[in-house]
């Protein structure tokens, strides 16, 4: 058997095209486009690529988008004052501070300083808490994108066994919550999980978000499973690979998302969706 490849690039393109239409309607009514500011601190090369792609996608959708790049040695107070200014700017609907931040800055303090109404990452404690209790919120972009991929495939989530490998605040924990809300029985594995394969082999839906190159191998996957690969790892030879051994797993799974071209483009598309929704709240 060879698994279906889940084309995140194509699905993201159709979402982005729908957002362009909404952005143009919004601009006509408000006299300004939806606005997103992305803030990056320091010189993490991966972050530089991610933020550039986010800003480019905004511009392509007709948003106003601004990239603020602060130096590696920037203090927490300086970053907080930038956040305060953006919170007060009526033309900015979304604020994204790219993580990780340099050591002298407390990530969580910065996240909590962003107005919850502009927290299009969905990381603010108010949004994280609302995700837990079921209120409408900004869903974190990567897990939200994974849910859209599953929905697009017609995956049946009610009563399904879903296993999430990786328990980060950005992906694993909100991913587990979204799957739970969709009616799945969810197992959330972490770096201390004993006999990981015993868990992953039960999964109808397997989400890999650990940041370890190709660690999910064919013998860890149940025949017919849907496998979503959130990892992006750069190998010593320069190749970009996910957390899943895609070729091996494709022999067992019903469907697997590739890296690149799977979850990555969906994360950006969902950032546009969240920013668009933030802007549209001002029309109501
Ligand atoms: N770093 C890695 N992924 C993300 C993300 O989705 N948002 C932010 N702000 N930082 C990240």
How many separate structural domains?
A: 2
The total of helices stands at 10
The main pleated sheet reads as: 6 strands, parallel
Helix content: 40-55%
Broad structural category: alpha/beta
The percentage of residues in β strands lies in 15-25%
Task: Let me know the average pLDDT.
Answer: 97
- Strand count: 11
Instruction: Assign an overall shape.
Output: globular
Strand order of the largest sheet: 1-11-8-7-5-6
Gap between N and C termini, in Å?
Answer: 50 Å
Low-confidence blocks of residues:
none
CATH class of the largest domain: Alpha Beta
The set of bound ligands, ions and cofactors reads: guanine
- CATH topology label of the largest domain: Rossmann fold
Report the CATH architecture of the largest domain.
Answer: 3-Layer(aba) Sandwich
**The CATH homologous superfamily of the largest domain:** NAD(P)-binding Rossmann-like Domain
Rg from Cα: 19 Å
The SSE order reads EHEHEHEHHHEHEHEEEEHEH
């Amino acid at each position: 058997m060879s698994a279906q490849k889940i084309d995140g690039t194509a699905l993201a393109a159709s979402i982005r095209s729908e957002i362009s239409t909404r952005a143009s309607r919004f601009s006509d009514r408000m006299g300004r486009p939806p606005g997103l500011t992305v803030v990056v601190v320091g010189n993490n090369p991966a972050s530089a690529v991610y933020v550039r792609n986010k800003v480019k996608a905004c511009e392509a959708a007709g948003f106003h988008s601004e990239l603020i790049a602060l130096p590696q040695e920037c203090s927490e107070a300086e970053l907080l004052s930038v956040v305060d200014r953006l919170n007060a700017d009526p033309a900015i609907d979304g604020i994204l501070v790219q993580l990780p931040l340099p050591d002298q800055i407390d990530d969580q303090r910065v996240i909590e300083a962003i107005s919850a109404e502009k927290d299009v990452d969905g990381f603010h404690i108010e949004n994280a808490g609302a995700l837990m209790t079921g209120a409408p919120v900004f869903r974190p972009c990567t897990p939200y994108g994974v849910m859209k991929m599953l929905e697009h495939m017609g995956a049946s989530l009610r009563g399904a066994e879903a296993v999430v490998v990786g328990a980060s605040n950005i992906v694993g924990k909100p991913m587990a919550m979204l799957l739970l809300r969709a009616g799945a029985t969810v197992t959330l594995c972490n770096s201390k999980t004993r006999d990981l394969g015993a868990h992953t082999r039960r999964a109808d839906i397997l989400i890999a978000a650990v940041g370890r190159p190709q660690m999910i191998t064919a013998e860890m996957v149940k025949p017919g499973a849907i496998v979503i690969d959130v990892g992006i790892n750069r190998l010593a030879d320069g190749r970009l690979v996910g957390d899943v051994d895609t070729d091996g797993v494709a022999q067992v799974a019903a469907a697997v998302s590739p890296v690149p071209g799977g979850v990555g483009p969906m994360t950006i598309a969902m950032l546009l969706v969240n920013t668009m929704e933030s802007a549209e709240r001002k029309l109501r």
